[in-house]
């Protein structure tokens, strides 16, 4: 019987490995940037076209490779980082498994140019699908250049699974930001379709964060610095008032490597306990330095998850250091037993007792008596001055007296009957009896039959500031106020965007809202759809937008919350079709502006909400496919009491 287990050919093994290493163009960007960093480069350029589908090129001025190394680097498990198994526990570089270049070359057209500093000529290699096409000597600058073209050209199924250019570009942007934030001492340049996206000169951590996130990031940052025997924590956290709905600007770096850790994230959230609104997420940029032998970074294919030896100690140190920084910079209250008394506010009158003002009031004063009584009161009051501690409002209590003993004679007025002199009673009766016409309110359609609705004394009741109960002839209907309002707003926004007739209210002072560069790219793409809802954009800069008009059902204070929620809902990219894009925007705005659970509604607001819900085209469910109301018949209630 012949054997059934066989060794895979190299090109097949490389394609299988590529499925783990290369998932999208952003994976290629990550591997090539990390190789450039490991080559001790001080200047790195990233050039992509069509979100990396057509071209991903990384140019660095690092050490370069010799002719032998240039050919050998495309072999599987060929690496210069480790020599023996023990080296896995003392890694200080990015890549070490030697799979990246071999996997990328198996599924793309690849071109490499490299030259070492001491060599006069370099090496130029062209590979297509793991096959060496050419290798020749060329005159090249110092460093290495990798150009990856036509990604997944030999695997059409994988290429079809790629998302739109907007989504793929966002993933590329994320990988570039992670590498650039981890290495502020390197000059990074990023080009997309010929346009310069980033130009980040070598700087410190704060300057690099501000350069990438742009906007008013500098004023949001609170420095964190803690040095212990097991960990060194540096970086910045953002002030609680700048917390966002999304978790986009949250970065952990361990030994200059970006990682994801839900455990450490929980430590940060514990430090912000009591400072954030429900559902808000703080932004942070934290750089952790630990001994290499205390972590294991080889537990995940993308190396974004690592294992710590003592997670509990790291949790406690991270939480305490962030909490200390928030208190030190007066962001959070803190108990300080070493208080400097010289910084206290000097209260010169802290030992003085307050003087009680004395006010004399004539209880016999009557403003409706004749002039003689008023004159007598004025003279009596002028003789008794007010004390220095009395206020002018006390003197205003008497019509015949004023402050500091000054009196003014009040002219006598006619009796109260004179107020009605000249009033034509016959004319008043004719006015009361004159017919008035009132515009009838339009009756909206109801979900229930007309004979079921109690037209006479219809009342609604709010239960626990969450549900609205409205009686009907067959029983009662219970409406979820938040879901019902979401359905009303959703259909209203969708109608405005469809017919393009949304009303807008102009702002007296335009709003300036600052966002990061990737958020600005999303807003720029959403701009036409947002304008159909009632937004008026005056201008858009590289780091902020100016809004001069907003929809009529949005207040000025809600604008930033609505746009922030919209950006959070579109983290994974903007839908391709215009209808899907409008639908997503309408759902996001309805979720942001709908009345929340726990809000008190007046009886009029309850009636309007119930009537507005049953006037919708689909009142049964919310925009997020949740039921908006339930009905209970009298028979069902009777059965409950019959038990």
UniProtKB/TrEMBL annotation:
Gene name, Swiss-Prot/TrEMBL: mutL
What SMART domains does this protein map onto? DNA_mis_repair, MutL_C
Q: What name appears for this protein in its UniProt entry? A: DNA mismatch repair protein MutL
Tell me which domain of life the UniProt entry assigns to the organism this sequence originates from.
Bacteria
DNA mismatch repair protein S5 domain location: 209-327
The MutL C-terminal dimerisation domain is annotated at 459-601
Indicate yes or no for the key word DNA repair: yes
Q: Which NCBIfam families match?
A: mutl
Q: Which organism is it from?
A: Flavobacterium limi
Its job: This protein is involved in the repair of mismatches in DNA. It is required for dam-dependent methyl-directed DNA mismatch repair. May act as a 'molecular matchmaker', a protein that promotes the formation of a stable complex between two or more DNA-binding proteins in an ATP-dependent manner without itself being part of a final effector complex.
């Amino acid at each position: 019987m012949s054997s059934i287990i066989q060794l895979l050919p190299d090109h097949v093994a490389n394609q299988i490995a590529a499925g783990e290493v290369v998932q999208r163009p952003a994976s290629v960007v990550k591997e090539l940037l990390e190789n450039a960093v490991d080559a001790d480069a001080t200047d790195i350029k990233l050039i992509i076209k069509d979100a990396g589908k057509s071209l991903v090129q990384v140019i660095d001025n690092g050490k370069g490779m010799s002719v032998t190394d240039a050919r050998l680097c495309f072999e599987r498990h060929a690496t210069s980082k480790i020599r023996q198994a023990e080296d896995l526990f003392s890694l200080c570089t990015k890549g070490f498994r030697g799979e990246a270049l071999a996997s990328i070359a198996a599924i793309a057209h690849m071109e490499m140019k490299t030259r070492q500093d001491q060599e006069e000529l370099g090496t130029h290699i062209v590979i297509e699908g793991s096959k060496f096409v050419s290798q020749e000597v060329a005159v090249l600058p110092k460093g290495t250049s990798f150009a990856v073209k036509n990604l997944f050209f030999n695997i059409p199924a994988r290429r079809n699974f790629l998302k739109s250019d907007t989504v793929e570009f966002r993933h590329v942007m994320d990988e570039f930001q992670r590498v650039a934030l981890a290495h502020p001492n390197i000059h990074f340049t990023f080009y997309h379709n010929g346009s310069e996206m980033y130009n980040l000169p070598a700087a410190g951590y704060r300057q690099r964060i501000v350069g990438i996130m742009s906007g008013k990031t500098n004023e949001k940052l609170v420095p964190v610095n803690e040095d212990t025997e097991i960990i060194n924590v540096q970086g910045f956290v953002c002030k609680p008032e700048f917390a966002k709905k999304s978790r986009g600007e949250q970065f952990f770096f361990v030994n200059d490597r970006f990682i994801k850790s839900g455990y450490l994230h929980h430590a940060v959230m514990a430090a912000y306990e009591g400072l954030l609104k429900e559902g808000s997420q703080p932004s942070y940029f934290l750089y952790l330095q630990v001994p290499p032998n205390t972590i294991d970074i080889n537990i995940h294919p993308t190396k974004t998850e690592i294992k710590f030896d003592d997670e509990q100690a790291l949790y406690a140190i991270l939480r305490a250091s962030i909490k200390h920084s928030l208190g030190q910079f007066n962001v959070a209250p803190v108990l300080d037993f070493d208080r400097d008394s010289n910084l206290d506010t000097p209260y010169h009158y802290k030992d003085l007792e307050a003087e009680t003002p004395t006010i004399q009031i004539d209880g016999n004063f009557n403003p409706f008596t004749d002039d003689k009584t008023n004159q007598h009161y004025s003279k009596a009051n002028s003789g008794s001055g007010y004390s220095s501690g009395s206020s002018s409002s006390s003197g205003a209590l008497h019509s015949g007296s004023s402050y500091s003993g000054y009196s003014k004679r009040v002219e006598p007025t006619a009796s109260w009957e004179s107020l009605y002199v000249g009033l034509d009673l016959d004319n008043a009766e004719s006015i009361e009896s004159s017919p008035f016409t009132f515009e009838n309110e339009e009756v909206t359609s109801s979900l229930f039959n007309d004979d079921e609705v109690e037209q006479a004394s219809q009342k609604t009741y709010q239960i626990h500031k969450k549900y609205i109960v409205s009686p009907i002839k067959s029983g009662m209907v219970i409406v979820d106020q938040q879901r019902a309002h979401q359905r009303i707003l959703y259909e209203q926004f969708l109608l405005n965007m469809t017919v393009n007739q949304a009303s807008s209210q102009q702002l007296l002072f335009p709003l300036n809202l600052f966002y990061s560069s990737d958020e600005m790219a999303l807003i720029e793409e959403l701009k036409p759809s947002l304008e159909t809802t009632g937004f008026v954009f005056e201008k858009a800069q590289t780091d902020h937008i100016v809004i001069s008009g907003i929809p009529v059902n949005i207040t000025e204070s809600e604008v930033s919350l609505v746009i922030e929620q919209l950006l959070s809902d579109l983290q994974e990219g903007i839908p391709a079709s215009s209808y899907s894009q409008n639908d997503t925007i309408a759902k996001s705005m309805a979720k942001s502006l709908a009345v929340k659970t726990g809000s008190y509604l007046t009886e009029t607001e309850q009636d309007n909400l119930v009537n507005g819900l049953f006037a919708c085209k689909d009142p049964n469910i919310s925009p997020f496919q949740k039921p908006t109301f339930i009905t209970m018949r009298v028979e069902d209630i009777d059965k409950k009491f019959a038990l």
